[in-house]
Amino acid sequence: VQLVESGGGLVQAGGSLRLSCTASGRTLSTYKVGWFRQAPGKERDFVAARNWIGGNTYYADSVKGRFTISRDNAKNTVYLQMNSLKAEDTAVYFCAADERNYGPGMSSAYGYWGQGTQVTVSS
Question: Which residue has the higher pLDDT, 45 or 26?
């Protein structure tokens, strides 16, 4: 599975962005999908995930109520809608996918990763 993110950019605090992650090679409909982010000098952190069984969604506490993960199986694409952005949301955002339906918040539970897209929020 190849994953390509898009939609990153520069936005003012309080603004919104929608990230997209399009897959090729395999269908994402039976994969769990997740978004992670990495700020300079920091670890890669979990942001949001969605299981393919049941469609349960999971969010980091820091983004609950502001970010929404969704998927469009027909387009083989996963989205991350980010609202009320804050300066601390600045990071490179990565999408990830895996056939195993466990550990949605664990980076080690994902075998496929995109190259990342930069999100910069100015305060």
Answer: 45
